[in-house]
């Protein structure tokens, strides 16, 4: 990354870290954009250049493009579901333990604040669209095709209980392990 890109990434990270710190101390509703901006040593207008809303400071991340890139790097041989599972494995290796800890805090917050849950659902649909396009390109199918959309929807559906279990059990099992197990279960045809 260029110096400018590194500075932008650092500012973005600082804003998110300060937002999480303030929210942990005083609650989501009581924390204002102005407080987050002041703690981050940026102006409110700078805050809004990085995050359009207060919800976005919690919801937004760079992990969908990371997952998409990992999927596009998969060799052409494996079936789409196997390629997606391998892409998740690869993407998780790019996330540091520190980042995963922050994801845990953000996810826990997201599950506890109704406005954030609504925004998370919007984000899931965006993730489905992104992965649907990548799978369609990989398979030579139409991204609007029902089968491709169902496959990606099933993957996201399998990931959701992983996130829930991860948070409800305070991270006792690592998220990458839970996701891999769930996708393996999906690959095996969901034997119950």
TrEMBL record:
HTH tetR-type domain residues: 9-69
Organism expressing this protein natively: Planotetraspora thailandica
Keywords: DNA-binding, Membrane, Transcription, Transcription regulation, Transmembrane, Transmembrane helix
Entry's Gene Ontology molecular function annotations: DNA-binding transcription factor activity; transcription cis-regulatory region binding
DNA-binding feature ranges: 32-51
Keyword Cell membrane belongs to the record: no
Coiled-coil blocks: none
InterPro entries registered for this protein in UniProt: Homeodomain-like_sf, HTH-type_TetR-like_transc_reg, HTH_TetR, MftR_C
Transmembrane intervals: 146-167
Record has Cell inner membrane as a keyword: no
Listed name of the protein: TetR family transcriptional regulator
Domain of life the protein comes from: Bacteria
């Amino acid at each position: 990354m260029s110096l400018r890109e590194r500075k932008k990434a650092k500012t973005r990270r600082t804003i998110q870290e300060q937002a999480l710190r303030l929210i942990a101390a005083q609650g989501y509703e009581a924390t204002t954009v102005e407080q987050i901006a002041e703690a981050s040593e940026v102006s409110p207008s700078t805050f809004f250049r990085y995050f359009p809303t207060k919800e976005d400071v919690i919801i937004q991340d760079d992990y969908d493009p990371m997952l998409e890139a990992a999927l596009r790097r998969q060799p052409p041989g494996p079936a789409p579901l196997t390629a997606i599972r391998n892409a998740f494995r690869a993407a998780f290796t790019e996330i540091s333990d520190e980042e995963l800890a922050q994801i845990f805090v953000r996810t826990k917050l997201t599950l506890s604040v109704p406005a954030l849950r609504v925004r998370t659902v919007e984000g899931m649909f965006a993730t489905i669209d992104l992965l649907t396009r990548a799978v369609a390109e990989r398979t030579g199918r139409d991204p609007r095709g029902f089968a491709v959309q169902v496959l990606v929807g099933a993957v996201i559906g399998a990931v959701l209980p992983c996130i829930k279990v991860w948070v409800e059990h305070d991270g006792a099992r690592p998220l990458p392990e839970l996701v891999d197990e769930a996708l393996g279960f999906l690959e095996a045809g969901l034997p119950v």
